[in-house]
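User: Hey, my collaborator sent me this sequence without any context and asked if I could get a structure. I don't really work with proteins. Can you help?
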Amino acid sequence: MRFLSVALLMLAAVACAGSGAAVGSNNPVASKDVATGQDFDLAPGQTAIVDGGALSVTFVKVAADSRCPTGVQCVWAGDGAVSLRAGTPGAGEDTATLHTTLTPKAAKAGPYEITLVGLKPYPKQGSKIPPATYVATLHIIRQ
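Assistant: No problem. I've predicted the 3D structure and written it out in structure-token form, which is a compact way to encode the shape of the chain:
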């Protein structure tokens, strides 16, 4: 009986390791392959793999969100800022904070330029956005 329990635990561990799910995350997939020249979405903790691993970009967190909520009249539109970690093999990783309204909206990583296109969901009056539900829309080009 003990052997069967250990075997089942090992089988479960192997199955989880190959599932692509981020540990401690609500993301169904921890990483995904993306193409240059196209918009794509990343959730917090999720990593985009570009050009077969030539670049990796991870959405670390929303650093700030002062965007004017729908249903509210504001003096300015506000700004959303996301923290990203990007790296190329052999060059290590750098962290950048990109903005929806302010600058910088883009950052370089090796021969790539990463641009923040948008941040979802948009704030609504009287409700708070749970950090895990944010989605950053990014666009990467190779220069």
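In plain terms: The chain has one domain: 2-142. You can pass these tokens on to your collaborator as they are.
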